[in-house]
Sequence to fold (427 residues):
Amino acid sequence: MGDIAKINVGGQDVESPVLKGTIGPDVIDIRKLYGQTGAFTYDPGFTSTASCESALTYIDGDEGVLLHRGYPIGQLAESSSFMEVCYLLLNGELPSKTELDGFNHTISRHTMVHEQLSSFFKGFRRDAHPMAVMVGVMGALSAFYPDSTDIADPEQRKISAHRLIAKVPTIAAMAYKYSIGQPFVYPKNNLSYAGNFLRMTFGVPAEEYEVIPAVEKAMDRIFILHADHEQNASTSTVRLAGSSGANPFACIAAGIACLWGPAHGGANEAALNMLREIGTPDKIQHYIDRAKDKNDPFRLMGFGHRVYKNYDPRATVMQKTVREVFAALNVSDPIFETAMRLEEIALSDPYFAEKKLFPNVDFYSGIILSAIGFPTEMFTVLFALARTVGWVAQWNEMISDPGQRIGRPRQLYTGPTQRDYVPLDKR
Ligand code: CMC
Fold:
């Protein structure tokens, strides 16, 4: 018999089992609490609530640890490839050489999109934010691929996962091309996942596009760093949307919508805009003071995290990658100096130390993406591209669970109690 937590509600003792994961905090199972006491628990923002069981990703926020299927993110970023990480997240184990070759082959055979999908783009204004385009076009995939929307069929779930991972770079690149008025570039399947995406984004039909290996490597690493991140807002959105039985394409569109917000995936765009606004190191203190001012809504973008109360391990890799990309492209950006100085000043300030606010994944990523040539509006699109595998793996894990039920949170109602309707002439 495992541990039991005793909860006293209105003088009545209720015993709740304490569940243990392989690592991480214990979880009090309160599923029977309402039935036994008539009381709900209250946890808006889910600060103390585990919403599901998962074997995919583990974060220790105090220690700054991130594991995918047990493997530390630093090791994966250093030695693995995005395709290998995708396989790992979807299947639970690192692939053998044959398995990886087979997976690469499968993904590369799904990179094209239905030709009619390109008409969708033409309906958007040229100046539309590419995330608005992504939400629309990714959701529309279910209309083009209805043969992989039967979620009760594991084979169709697998095919939809492969389609999503394979097509999201094509669609992301198309969103970019549309915004700058250039023709769409078809995928080229003998290139790597990252190389193909770079070519579809920056190549033009009039010229051969040469993939720069160091940039391809950096792009692949950025994808790895964003592949999955436990039950964050967009992943929870995908799970909640999927819990009703909605098809995976619709669920991923819901995840993209959630990711767009500046507190989540939109922070990479906001962080670079902020660094450009700060400009030179002499202005940093002014912005630090604003971030500390309770009456000023300004926050240091790319700083702080709900779970990490230590350095985000992804930010460490990002910072290193900035240098590698600068060296490969033989460029520099004074913003990088400003960013490092800002980090230094913030980390030595008691406000940030007490609240345990450290740079997160978004603090340095924008500098790299900008050096590669992406406009800021594309940053969150790149996050969505890479996170698609995490969303779809989490969705599949949920649907594969025979005990899965529709997600249906309850509430603390604070509106009027029942009252009688008043006719218009009496109001
Ligand atoms: N700058 C200044 N103060 C901050 C910041 C910041 N970036 N982040 C948190 N705080 C303060 C906040 O004012 C609050 O202070 P107090 O306790 O005095 O009211 C305290 O720290 C706790 O903040 P919170 O908003 O209650 O924390 P949260 O866990 O709800 O929010 C967060 C986490 C990531 C939304 C928040 O830190 C933030 O807005 N950061 C900036 C946006 C950002 O970089 N987001 C990317 C997150 S990583 C990528 C991803 O997951 O998408």
The pocket of carboxymethyl coenzyme *A is lined by residues 232, 263-265, 267, 291, 299-306, 355, 357, 360-362 (CB under 6 Å). The chain has a mean pLDDT of 95. The beta strands are 4-9, 12-19, 27-28, 57-60, 65-68, 71-72.
